[in-house]
Amino acid sequence: MTSSSFDLVLLQETKLHNITPFKLASFLPASLANFVHLDAVGTSGGILTAWNNNLLRLKNSVIKDRSVSVQFECCSSNLTFWATNVYGPNAEIDRDSFFQEIIDLQPTISGPWIIAGDFNSVRSADDRNTGRVTVTETQRFNEWLHDLQVQELPLLDRNFTWSNMQSTPILTRIDRVFFNAEWNAALPNSRLHTLPRSTSDHFPLNVDASTQIPKSGLF
Fold first, then answer.
1. Within a 10 A sphere around the Cβ of 109, how many other Cβ atoms?
2. Residue 16 and residue 35 in contact, taking contact as beta carbons nearer than 8 Å
3. Is the distance from CB of 162 to CB of 172 less than 8 angstroms?
4. Helix (H) or strand (E) segment spanning residue 189
5. Which residue windows are coiled coil (predicted)?
6. Phi-psi domain of 206 (left: phi exceeds 0; alpha: psi -120 through 50; beta: other)
7. What gap in Å lies between CA 121 and CA 174, rounded to an integer?
8. In whole numbers, what is the pLDDT of the chain averaged over residues?
9. Quick check: 33 and 24 in contact, CB under 8 A?
10. Residue 163's pLDDT is what?
11. What pTM did the predictor assign?
């Protein structure tokens, strides 16, 4: 499965700067020619949201330090929704500012909303095959979700989404999708599953939100 199968793609850790349409065409299909990008810092980070303009219309966008939020209208159904694409910090000391960034975004949001991407954090010991977590990490993450009043879209086919690719691997669940009450009301049958992994150390995720929203992938 490749990005050519999708009409909305959310990429994290692009490690790219100043993306042009020509550059975008070198790694995404021509149908995904419309995009919003947060540049990498040095060789770290970078967030890209790209979509098929024949199926989705851009209504609004907000770019922050660790997130790209885009409001779309579906051409076929006139359904309007927000998609926030995130790449969370690795360092625990930076997580509070990341969580606050999304909290501060909330007043801007109206209607269905998903928050998706690489959070670089876990919710419980079950999210690491080693079982090693800190109470601070898991508690702050879960408190933040409670404050946002969002639910997690369950991953149906896999316990972990990232591997360090070693012979005795460390496995974690750091790639996630969350949704608000309006999303659940509009798209109650949304499903999340993984796609085949190629060279990445992450398993790509696919959000199936029924025929109302074009195919969406997180890579």
1. 20
2. no
3. yes
4. none
5. none
6. beta
7. 6
8. 90
9. yes
10. 83
11. 0.93
Q: Does domain 3-120+152-161+173-218 have CATH number 3.40.50.11260?
A: no
Token pair, residue 174, equals 């750091």
Which tokens in the block code for residue 184? 């659940």
**DSSP state at residue 126:** G
Give the residue-averaged pLDDT of 2-30: 87
Q: How far is CA 166 from CA 2, 31, 122, 127, in A?
A: 25, 36, 20, 18
The arithmetic mean of pLDDT across residues 107-133, rounded, is: 94
State which amino acid sits at residue 77.
Answer: S
Place of tokens 């928050």: 115
Task: Record the tokens describing residue 43, joined without a space.
Answer: 């060789």
Q: Is the pLDDT of residue 198 over 80?
A: no
Cα separation, 76 vs 73, whole angstroms: 9
Residues facing 44 on adjacent strands: 41
Q: Tally Cβ neighbours within 10 Å of residue 129.
A: 16
CA distance 62 to 16: 19
Partners of residue 49 on adjacent β-strands: 10, 36
